[in-house]
Amino acid sequence: MSRSKHFFNRSLRQTRSSRVQPSTFENELKNFDDEIQSIRKTIVQLEEDNDLSIKTPAKRSIKHIKLEPELQIDEPIIPDNFFPIYNKIKEMRKLITTPVDLIGCVEIPALLRLMTKQFKKTGEILDIPVDKINIYKEEMTALEENEIDSFWRYQLLVTLMFSSQTKDEVNYEVMKSLHHHYLKKGYTEGLCIEAILNTSIADIDKLIFKVGFHSRKAAYLVETTKVLHESYADDVPDNINELVKLKGIGNKMGHLILQGAWKQVDGISVDTHMVRLCNIFGWTHNEKNPDNVRKELEKMLINYKELWLEINPVLVGFGQSVCTPTGRRCDLCLLSKINEKNDYLCPAVDKRLLIRINRGVEKLEDRKIRGDLSKLIEYINS
Length: 382
Fold this sequence. Notes:
Elements: H1 3-18, H2 24-50, H3 82-93, H4 99-103, H5 108-122, H6 137-146, H7 150-163, H8 168-184, H9 193-197, H10 201-207, H11 214-231, H12 240-243, H13 251-261, H14 272-281, H15 290-300, H16 307-321, H17 351-358, H18 374-381
Helix pairs in contact: 3-16, 5-6, 5-7, 5-8, 7-8, 7-13, 10-11, 14-16
């Protein structure tokens, strides 16, 4: 055998011996595939024989519920007792004269204007006592219709600033004294922006010491007066948003300024008497914030805006003289009379007081009266 042939035969034997034999894993995999095919055939046969087809579960249907829109209430909710009580109070107010009617903040600029005119004519200071104010009512009304100007508006702002935590009687005396002081100082319009700008906070504090929180109000007055001089051409703003930016002026005062100085009724002015009465009558519920009471009343009376101007003096005067914070005069109040339902119109009648009056234990004249209630007493006794 040639050498080359021998080499070829040896290589062939090596190749045959090195050929890869099927592994155990490959055999198992083939067997598994065969089993799968067998199972598939069995399932198909079962489906054909018994109609046991395996179906994909149907998607769960979702029922769409149409949501109804919220009920829209067009008409505001007015308490059932509002108009019966309010109209009865208006009936009583025609028979009584209270401090707010004579020397309320809205009345004071007209009184100061009368004093100014008298001083310009005669050089004498006109002092108008509270019990003599009715004599000047016609003149005051004429002035209010024809002579409202920047001085008038400023004086209204000042008296409103002083009125917080201060009775009308005290506020009037302080405003009258302050006005007289500046007339004597040579300011032709008396209390005015120029006069305050030329007075120190300490001196103003001494001049107004009778009002509540006089030191704080003196500082507020000077600061607000500077703003009016620098930003509003020595006048008072004519919108509530600008007014409440002024130091010492809130919503109650702002709305009274608009009503009394600009003849604009953009909201209801609410004071502490009104807050108390609204809670007593159930028009609001334990609400002590005047601004929240204002919002409730405005919402309630949105269709009765003709009441927005009058409701303040009507309720304030009633709260000053009849339904007072202490010693309520239920004996003089028409709301304490039995109505057709054999009940009291007012939910807070002092029944013990009525019993004492009926038994003669307490007399009408024994209780302090603020304001003139003589016509109301005469009406009750008639």
